[in-house]
Amino acid sequence: MSWVVLVAAAGGVALISAFLMLLYIASLMASPKPFSLSGAHVVVTGGSSGIGKSIAVECFKQGAFITLLARNENRLLEAKKEIEKYAVNDKQVVHCISVDVSKDSADVERVLKQAQEKLGPIDMLVNSAGMSVTGKFEDLDTSSFEKLMAVNYLGSVYPTRAAITTMKERRMGRIVFVSSQAGQVGLFGYSAYSAAKFALRGLAEALQMEVKPYNVYVTVAYPSDTETPGFIEENKTKLLETRLISESSSPLYQPDYVARIIVKDAIQGKFSSSIGTDGHMLNILTSGMSPMNSLGEALETVICMGLFRLIGQYYTASFDSIVRRCMIQKEKSEKTD
């Protein structure tokens, strides 16, 4: 009987330890106060089209003042006209600046200084500028890896460096990095793109640890395939395997829907922003040591991890099957030729 008592005692200690750990975690997860966009100055990079433009529209609908950054001046002016239709008061302004956020950090700092002189300190920065190139690792030029890292990663580093000091001084602010589900899991054909989008998560986790004491919160968004001009352009040269995997894993979302979720999560100060049921599952599966903002989020991760891990392995096996079938078809085609 003594061993029964020992086992029971050990179980009781384990339960008490787990409960105390949850209480400790809960004490560290004080959710930030919701952030109001009314009268706020929001800067959106890559804001002339796609998810970036939709985020600017959503923020403008909530009373924000907007600065759009993008390379193409004509598209910027077109986006400005479209966004202005959603004004909720006659004081709102949409300010456009043509700049390549991935080229010169000093240039990015200069234009953001101008934007703040015009519309006030930056309250929220949305790093949405990005691009994708698909192809097998050995078929991609090294210049493709360099370009994607410059646009998708450094194109977020430079604006963030230009905005973060003032946010810390004011002890308020939100920074959003628009990554991708390809920034959570590597997929066939995305060796260059996934690496650059994965880098955003590492940046975001380290930065959040630095700025949280200053009441500045970081959000990383992981949208899946979204019907944007960039996605349409990417599809023209996308590998068959990559396209089949994408089509089998999640639906194609509209940018306005994606933007609403990203803005809502950023306002609430959530670290990870996911889209749809598949995105939510993937977010839990890949959460690792990423920050959480509530005890409920922590409990959901613990409860769902095992089940979602099994489902994730099913998806991975399905993707591998798609690649194998494509290889077999290509081999048969080559023999026929």
From TrEMBL:
The keyword NADP applies. The keyword Lipid metabolism applies. GO terms for biological process: 3-keto-sphinganine metabolic process; sphingolipid biosynthetic process. Pfam families: adh_short. CDD domains: KDSR-like_SDR_c. Residues 40-225 form the Ketoreductase domain. Coiled coil: none annotated. It is found in: Endoplasmic reticulum. InterPro entries: KDSR-like, KR_dom, NAD(P)-bd_dom_sf, Sc_DH/Rdtase_CS, SDR_fam. GO terms for molecular function: 3-dehydrosphinganine reductase activity; nucleotide binding. It catalyses: sphinganine + NADP(+) = 3-oxosphinganine + NADPH + H(+). Keywords: Endoplasmic reticulum, Lipid metabolism, NADP, Nucleotide-binding, Oxidoreductase, Sphingolipid metabolism. One of its GO terms (cellular component) is endoplasmic reticulum membrane. Its EC number is 1.1.1.102. Pathway: Sphingolipid metabolism; Lipid metabolism; sphingolipid metabolism. It is an enzyme of class 1 (oxidoreductase). Catalyzes the reduction of 3'-oxosphinganine (3-ketodihydrosphingosine/KDS) to sphinganine (dihydrosphingosine/DHS), the second step of de novo sphingolipid biosynthesis. Belongs to the short-chain dehydrogenases/reductases (SDR) family. This is 3-dehydrosphinganine reductase. It comes from Eublepharis macularius (Leopard gecko).
